[in-house]
Write a structure and sequence with these properties.
Elements (H helix, E strand, L loop, with lengths): L2 E4 L10 E6 L6 E2 L4 E6 L4 E5 L4 E6 L6 E2 L4 E6 L18 H4 L13 H4 L3 E2 L1 H10 L3 H7 L4 E2 L1 H7 L19 H5 L10 H16 L2 E9 L1 H18 L6 H14 L6 E3 L2 E3 L6 E3 L1 E3 L2 E3 L2 E2 L7 H17 L4 H4 L4 E5 L18 E5 L3 E7 L2 E15 L5 H16 L2 H5 L2
Parallel strand pairs: 9-10, 14-18, 18-19
Antiparallel strand pairs: 1-8, 2-4, 2-7, 3-6, 4-5, 6-8, 11-21, 12-13, 14-17, 15-16, 19-21, 20-21
């Protein structure tokens, strides 16, 4: 009996999704729970798994189409049939005569070992592979741990065995001769990039954004990390990074100045008596801000495990919508890319965001002597409609004090 594959139930906040790519074609065998297609929403890429084993008999909706919850995507026929083909028309109607073709002979050649071992590609990586015209062998050679990332494929596209053609390549990856010819390429924004653009423009047009700065001496944080990093990792199974210190320090500041943890709804100020901290994570698809729920109840190990889990799921494309929903305050770290100073944009409807930057050895006067200290610039962008400069500055001073004397966070002083 044939099985229908439909669009999974999308969250209430997501009206539709874009069918980015089919991972299987009509006539190919599929296994239960194997990914058939990728759906891109405003926030994440969702996989459409096969609900039973069989053969992909018919594709009803082509890639690039917007779909809604429950729409029929494809049909799986029972058995291990190979060679059945189905045409896909723009309107979504397959060639049913071809779909009803007889099963292939029992002696049909099995899939090659190379095909069976094909590395997994995410939507961004798949797009790069197609644009660069990379062969299966080149993709397999570029894969690490059974998965090839976008950057892996771009590097492979510059090595031996890569297709020389430049058609479809991003301008940055084309040879100098092509760029000198004033080549151009028009590509549509991904849904995530559209959503990011929409939210950032909305934040700047609806909020009275202002940024205040301070600097922090990370000497004691560095000493603590150096002293306990090995024991911390052995005991908790996760590395002791900087972010746990900053999350803890930010929560202390939010407790002292609750308006920075608040949001605006119409003419009301909503004070949140919980601390859901968004931590910005950069991925191939763009910036994501997964949320640490009730971060004030987490210890340093819990915070580091949560962030490590978000980063891995974001890279693998398995992060969920729930991970990205909500948040009362956000932290972003441009320092990992070398940023010295920036004015981050608030992640609406939140009212403030803390920006971290690169740590540099700087000359400081300490006890009348000039010494080199690891200094980081901090930036707090905030909605001036409800947050006054006094609270913003005092919040940053609290964060600075907690980081320069981490014992404060343990003693609550």
């Amino acid at each position: 009996m044939s099985v229908e594959i439909r669009v999974p139930q999308l969250p209430e906040s997501v009206a539709d999704a874009t069918l980015v790519a089919w991972r299987k074609q009509p006539g190919e065998s599929v296994s239960r729970d194997e990914n058939l297609a990728d759906l891109e929403t405003d926030k994440v890429v969702l996989e459409v798994p096969a609900t039973s084993s069989g053969v992909l008999q018919e594709i009803r909706i082509p890639a690039g189409t917007s779909v809604k919850s429950g729409e029929l995507l494809a049909i799986i026929a029972p058995g291990a049939v190979a060679g059945v083909k189905a045409d896909v028309a723009p309107g979504g109607n397959g060639a049913k005569a071809a779909a009803r073709a007889a099963p292939a002979a029992a002696g049909a050649a099995p899939a090659t070992a190379g095909a069976a071992a094909s590395p997994k590609l995410g939507p961004a990586a798949q797009r790069v592979a197609e644009e660069l015209g990379l062969s299966g062998a080149v993709i397999a050679a570029a894969a690490k741990g059974g998965r090839a990332s976008k950057s892996d494929l771009i590097s492979a596209g510059k090595g031996p065995g890569a297709a020389p053609a430049t058609v479809g390549k991003p301008i940055a990856d084309q040879p100098t001769a092509a760029r000198g010819a004033r080549a151009e390429q028009r590509v549509p924004m991904t849904r995530l990039r559209q959503r990011i653009a929409e939210r950032l423009v909305k934040a700047q047009s609806t909020q009275a954004l202002l940024t205040t700065f301070n600097e922090v001496d990370l000497t004691q944080v560095n000493e603590l990390r150096a002293r306990y990093k090995e024991g911390f990792e052995k005991q908790h199974g996760v590395k002791l990074g900087f972010m746990a210190f900053f999350v803890k320090a930010a929560i202390e500041g939010l407790k002292r100045y609750p308006v920075i943890n608040a949001s605006v709804e119409g003419t009301d100020i909503v004070y949140h008596h919980y601390f859901d901290i968004g931590v910005a994570v950069s991925t191939e698809r763009g910036l994501m801000v997964p949320v640490l729920r009730d971060a004030d109840a987490l210890d340093f190990a819990g915070i580091e495990r949560g962030i490590a889990g978000f980063s891995k799921r974001a890279r693998d494309g398995t992060i969920s919508l729930d991970d990205l929903t909500g948040g009362t305050f956000s932290i972003t770290n441009g320092g990992v890319f070398g940023s010295m100073l920036s004015t981050p944009i608030v992640n609406a409807p939140q009212s403030a965001i803390l920006g971290m930057h690169k740590t540099q050895q700087r000359a400081m006067v300490v006890g009348g002597a000039v010494v080199a200290r690891p200094i980081m610039y901090l930036a707090l962008s905030y909605d001036h409609r409800i947050i006054d400069g006094r609270e913003a500055v005092q919040f940053l001073v609290t964060v600075k004090d907690c980081l320069e004397d981490p014992g404060r966070m343990l003693l609550g002083v």
